[in-house]
Amino acid sequence: xxxxxxxxxxxxxxxxxxxxxxxxxxxxxxxxxxxxxxxxxxxxxxxxxxxxxxxxxxxxxxxxxxxxxxxxxxxxxxxxxxxxxxxxxxxxxxxxxxxxxxxxxxxxxxxxxxxxxxxxxxxxxxxxxxxxxxxxxxxxxxxxxxxxxxxxxxxxxxxxxxxxxxxxxxxxxxxxxxxxxxxxxxxxxxxxxxxxxxxxxxxxxxxxxxxxxxxxxxxxxxxxxxxxxxxxxxxxxxx
Length: 239
Ligand SMILES: [Zn+2]
Known about the structure:
This protein is of the alpha/beta class. Helix content is 36%, strand content 22%. The strands form 2 sheets. Strands 2-1-3-6-4-5 form a 6-stranded mixed beta sheet, with helices on both faces. β7 and β8 (208-213) form a beta hairpin. α1 (33-50) packs across α6 (166-184) and α3 (104-118) packs across α6 (166-184). The two termini are 49 Å apart. It binds zinc ion.
């Protein structure tokens, strides 16, 4: 069984009002909510695919895709879970995760994701798991969650400034993916650390450099060639 997860980035890039004030610690930069949401969805998409899920980006462009289009796409595709990513406003602080009132599966998903988000390593106040009659939660046929990862207008704007921090974005994407994995009983597959660079070898035949390579088969070919020629000396030296 391959599960399909619908991913919703919340708003369009130019949606009115959905942006921060100028953030002094970022030189007065204004951040649009969708700059965070879109990046979170992009990273989450990578995480989920690595874990064996299929994904559906219900609003893949920067346009302000209507909410009814978003939910219809998820419904038509038969998604098994709907995840909507947002950044809050209203002057508070912290993370809150929503499900539709009375949706037991939605609540289960929200709790599992919320728990992972609080353990993500990004310090955030726990505002709890809540229910709300939001359109994307109501109009989706599958369990749905809506995550408010932080506030765009928190006191001091530190959560606002973190919207563009790649480490924060990555930590939240990983945590959300872990929560989704837990919901489906799927093992989370962590990203492979980059493999160390392979050593280079130089093949010197009768005092002349024949090849510098990290490929075993090229070293072997150079040696074979030299032996065929009946050379006197073959040196293989790590560089
Ligand atoms: Zn939003």
